[in-house]
Amino acid sequence: MNWAPRVASSRDIPAIEALIPPSVLELQAPYYPLAQREAAIGDVFAVDRQLIDDGTYFVVEAEGRIVACGGWSRRRSLCGGDRRRNGDEGTLDPRTEPARIRAFFVHPHWARRGIGRALLRECERAIRAAGFRSATLSATLAGEPLYACGGFRVTERTLLALERGAPMPVVTMDKDLRGPVEAPEQDRA
Question: Can you give the pTM of this predicted structure?
């Protein structure tokens, strides 16, 4: 299916807030204990209105509702939401610093249908258009395969501190965007 991400607006926030818990609780289950997943919701897995205000956050709709979201940022913060961002919020220099891929969530009933790849392609297109030469992200263990398939390379495995509970293992991944743009799967022969 040809998923068409669109730029998110503030009116999408309630639907995004409703999407995050089932995405985290179900899709992260093979990788993190329940207590850790629950502790991360609202702490690091949360809506970041700054991404929406910057026009760098996308949603995908199906059957009249938002089934996935994700975006990128020209700001230093690598993850987090309104309540707590992980990192400085200053603006990045696209000539020397990587853009940030941020906050991907897919409803479990819509997982593994190519929506995450469509969001990632849209983010990369927008990042290139903004003049960035590379991108970085902090992936959950569940998200690592998606980003690896998208050409991101692991640079570090680390622990992300949570306000409540044990630190969460995450993976820092980077991609050089100066090469050719990858064609969508449906366009490949």
Answer: 0.90
